[in-house]
Amino acid sequence: MSRCVFVLLDGLNAHTARRCMGYLLALEQAGHARYAQLSCELPPLSRPLYATLFSGLSPVEHGILHNDDVRICPTSTVFSRARDAGLVTAAAAWLWVSELCNAAPFVPARDRLTNAPSLPIAHGLFYSSDLYPDAELFCDANCLLAQHKPDILLVHCMGIDTTGHQHGVESRAYRDAVREADGLLARSLPNWLANGYTVLVTSDHGMDEDGMHNDTTDSVRRVPLWLIGCPQPLPEAQTQVANVLCRILDIG
Question: Domains, the chain, ranges and CATH?
Fold first, then answer.
């Protein structure tokens, strides 16, 4: 069994990732990372696609089809499966992750800081502002890793998605948000690898020039995926990401 850090860079499209993520591209060129480009499932909305990434089912199969569907994911997730296998789970993530995996609706006084081994995500730092800085989110993730040594850690930041909604995919601001995420990975990922973690980096959906991701253009649907530190086969579809994570953890 290997441990895994699952990095979800919300709103990152494949084209901008290939242009602006120099650190991850350097890992590829050195033979330390492998890359795949996936097509996100439909509808290309965050809450349905989080459920897809966690469960391995498409939105039409798991039934969460819009962002206002506030409820626990109706099928098992990689986190519930890891919990049931006796593994330690953790997440530094947007509040919708807590709602899909632990409890819905999100109650900040109860759920902002989670330490409950009975829950699918036992240790969580969940944020509720779109403007929560990605740098702080990575600090949260590294604190969870140092304190709890989880078998699976989700690192989910919203900076790229938020900037894309504000400025559109063709803006310098969007590209700079992607560059910032790449720099944050360069600061954290070597330590994760040194501590025995496999790292999977991907996105839920991309973004278009209107600052939206409701349509079916390549800019919205094409998302990147990197697998670092693991010989597992790369997924060919977004619905296969959960199974890759489970195979890394030796629970599927």
Answer: 3-248 (3.40.720.10)
